[in-house]
Amino acid sequence: MARTEHYDDPTAPKPNSMVVAASAVVTDDHGHILLQRRRDNDLWALPGGGMDLTDSLPGTAVREVKEETGFDVEITGLVGTYTDPKHIIAYTDGEVRRQFNVCFTARITSGQLAISDESTELPFVPPEEIDQLPMHHTQRLRLQHFLEHREKPYLG
């Protein structure tokens, strides 16, 4: 199923759902960031996804990283909350969502890198190369906040 991300677009369809989601900035020993190239829109993004009714937000991030990358991770911190109503995601099945995302930091505890059916590539990317990747504004904002080493999480 394909998706189209809109930001501050007056022609975007109106949302028909609200999804609580979590994502994680996972780094290796060199400070490179694990990114996935999404199969549904061909853009680069952090691993993450929607919360199940039986999940916590940190648990969602841990589960989604495992499902999308093969790695088991431990949550180590909070980058921020991202609730901008200008960000609309439209899916080809008719769902048009507003997303509430909480972005965490995480470290790998075990597992092996494995591409899921949701992505086509899973590299660890040096921070200085991130600007060169096609990525939605909202993903870039989370990475910018992480790379700023803020004392307090972003609340937006």
TrEMBL record:
Protein name, UniProt field: DNA mismatch repair protein MutT
Q: Does the keyword Hydrolase apply?
A: yes
Domain Nudix hydrolase positions:
17-147
One GO term in the molecular function aspect is: hydrolase activity
> Which cofactors are required for activity?
Mg(2+)
User: Which taxonomic lineage is given here?
Assistant: Bacteria, Bacillati, Actinomycetota, Actinomycetes, Kitasatosporales
What Gene3D superfamilies is this protein classified in? Answer: Nucleoside Triphosphate Pyrophosphohydrolase
Top-level taxon of origin:
Bacteria
Answer yes or no on keyword Hydrolase: yes
Which keywords has UniProt assigned to this entry? Hydrolase
